[in-house]
Design goal:
Keywords: ATP-binding, Nucleotide-binding, Transport
Number of helices: 11
Bound molecules: adenosine-5'-diphosphate
Organism: Dethiosulfatarculus sandiegensis
GO molecular function: ATP binding; ATP hydrolysis activity
Protein name: ABC transporter
Strand content: 15-25%
Order of helices and strands: EEEHEEHEHHHHHEHEHEEHH
Helix content: 25-40%
Shape: globular
GO cellular component, one term: plasma membrane
Length: 243
């Protein structure tokens, strides 16, 4: 599904991402962890075309997407969410899915047979935890609580019918109860065979979901493996605990 090779990017004197390599197979979930400032969001931005690499390659479904702009990457089926939700604040929650639902990708996939997009949007919002027929679905995004904005971010990704979804700290800013209700939503996507990359600080929840975990520190990949083996690695403990 995805191959990242020697990906590097500096900002001024800071090497934000440094020679990162990894591969991700279809139906797998890769967790990306690391201390603050270790390059996680920059890695997401490099993969999805929001930041250009100084060096390295991103291969998605066998195609080189390294220099493609974000909208082209999305149209190819690589969706991402933002740590800071970026909705259209004046639009109702479900109308926020229209950019994806009216995109050439979705039109192409459905061959013109789409039906009622509003109904599809509402179904998608229900899938990510909006209560059916409730006010939150028709509320403007500006008045949605933070937890729902994060759900909306996920629904926007799903609306694109993506092959790969990159979630940048989906759980950040959520209460424990909100995290607990979001986990089954993700688990359902995993059960459906979706391929995911999750940048996450909530390790306990991430380790339940992820097949593989990649650990960044100062922009470098310092470890990769299944959750149990990664947390036992001394270099990971010292990056986290400073020991
Ligand atoms: P993380 O997501 O792991 O917290 P980031 O990818 O946001 O880390 O940042 C990695 C490093 O790159 C940090 O030192 C950060 O300050 C720097 N950085 C990220 N984006 C920019 C930018 N647009 N301009 C300058 N420095 C940046």
């Amino acid at each position: 599904m995805l191959a990242v090779k020697g990906l590097s990017r500096a900002f001024g004197g800071v090497q934000a991402v440094d020679q990162v390599d990894f591969e991700l197979k279809r139906n797998q979930v890769l967790g990306v962890i690391g201390p603050n400032g270790s390059g996680k969001t920059t890695l997401v931005n490099l993969i999805t075309g929001f930041v250009r690499p100084d060096k390295g390659k991103v291969i998605f479904k066998g195609k080189n997407i390294t220099k493609k702009p974000p909208y082209k990457v999305a149209q190819m089926g690589l969706a991402r969410s933002f740590q800071m939700a970026k909705p259209f604040y004046q639009l109702e929650a479900y109308k926020n899915l229209n950019v994806a639902l009216y995109s050439p990708r979705v039109k192409g996939l459905l061959g013109g047979k789409f039906g009622d997009r509003d109904a599809v949007a509402k179904d998608l919002l229900e899938e990510v935890g909006f209560e059916r027929d409730s006010q939150v679905i028709t509320q403007t995004a500006s008045s949605l609580p933070h937890g729902y904005l994060k759900r909306l971010e996920l629904a926007k990704c799903l609306a694109l019918r993506p092959d790969l979804i990159v979630l940048d700290e989906l759980f950040s800013g959520l209460s424990l109860a909100e995290v607990a209700s979001m986990v089954p939503v993700i688990e359902k996507l995993v059960a459906q065979g979706k391929t995911l990359i999750m940048v996450e600080h909530r390790l306990r929840e991430l380790f339940r979901i992820a097949d593989q975990v990649l650990v960044l520190n100062f922009g470098r990949k310092i470890a990769q493996g299944n959750p149990t083996e990664v947390m036992d690695m001394p270099e990971v403990k010292s990056a986290y605990l400073g020991a």
